Amino acid sequence: MPGGFSDCLSQWRQWIRPLFILTYALAALIFVPIFLIQSIEEGFQKRNKEVWIGGIFAWVAIPVSFWEIIQHVVHYTTPKLQKHIIRILWMVPIYAVNAWLGLINPENSLYVDSLRECYEAYVIYNFMKYLLNYLNMEMDLEASLEIKPQVKHIFPFCCLPDWEMGREFIHICKHGILQYTVVRPATSVISVICHLSGVYGGGDFRANVAYPYILGINNVSQFVAMYCLVMFYKANIHELRPMKPFPKFFCIKAVVFLTFFQGVIIDMLVYQGFIKTTSDTHEAEHDLSTRLQDFLLCIEMCLAAIAHHYAFSYEPYVVPGSKQSCCQAFIAMWDVSDVQSDIQEHFGIVGSSISRRIRGRNMYTIPRGTDQDSPSSVSTTAPGSLYQNECDEFVINYGTITSIQKP
């Protein structure tokens, strides 16, 4: 009997897919009839129709994304890249479930929206790490950038000083994107606090509520992240060509950036009265804009799931005859130690930069990194190998940060 169970586990590739399909089919057979009966009892109002239509698209998108995630777990042959791809693919199920729950209960959608907002920042970070790891696997990225022609800023920012090619360029792009990973969750927490305090005013563009200010902060932070991503793509467009970057960039920008501005436009149209509700109260207007945004997201996530299937396909990572541990791949999918390390580095660099500016010290160097997903502590100091001056308190090794004691 133990031998049979062990053989069954060793053949997990053969039964995991039918098990997933069976689980999903059972969930559909259980929950869909329950919701149908509830809709019939309530007279199948217009709101129920929105939930049904949105639910159809959302619950088609989820298995498509789950299938792609499972395939990457099954063929987990390039952990440095696939770990970030899997995290990106989780965006569609999270967005779809979030939008569908928002349709069911728009009054409390702010709380589930906060999870979606935090994850969209996480997706931007993982996409940047995916690009960095891909390029560093093929070449010495910093050395390659150092010998390239200077990449100029995009209009209308042509007057900005150039980012020096090499270490400084990577440093600015990476931390320009990483700041959004910090700002977005922070503003989401502030939004929830303001909502509980009755001063949030979702969808209201008056000066005495928090919504327009939080929206402005998110807008600026997201624009900085998008601009840094575009600059990084512009600098490495030829090196990224073998991995077909355009569909991947399009998927990320469409889901993260365009859906954000879509929500802003809907709020403005409802606030200005171009899209009207049967009630003139602010609560009814906010309820309408939230439901419309969530309804569109349900439909868009179905399209995004199909686009992700082609843009982030598992097929390039299929290696015949290779055997990977499903458990190891699953654990690696949830390992966020690299995120913690990079955020710690981000705060260290920002704090050190502010400290230098206060003391009137502007010169610094950024050491060339090696393995971005394998942090290691710094135990020795070599000329030119540390990001520090005589007053700094941190040593940065491109992805790690270690406190040092001065002699």
From TrEMBL:
Subcellular location: Membrane
Record flagged with keyword Transmembrane: yes
Keywords noted in UniProt: Membrane, Transmembrane, Transmembrane helix
Transmembrane segments: 19-40, 52-73, 85-104, 210-233, 254-274
Pfam families: Solute_trans_a (PF03619)
Keyword Chaperone in annotation: no
GO CC annotations on file: membrane
InterPro entries recorded: Ostalpha/TMEM184C
Chief place where the protein resides: membrane
Membrane topology qualifier: Multi-pass membrane protein
PANTHER family: ORGANIC SOLUTE TRANSPORTER-RELATED
Protein's name in the database: Transmembrane protein 184C
Organism: Cryptolaemus montrouzieri
Classification of source organism: Eukaryota, Metazoa, Ecdysozoa, Arthropoda, Hexapoda
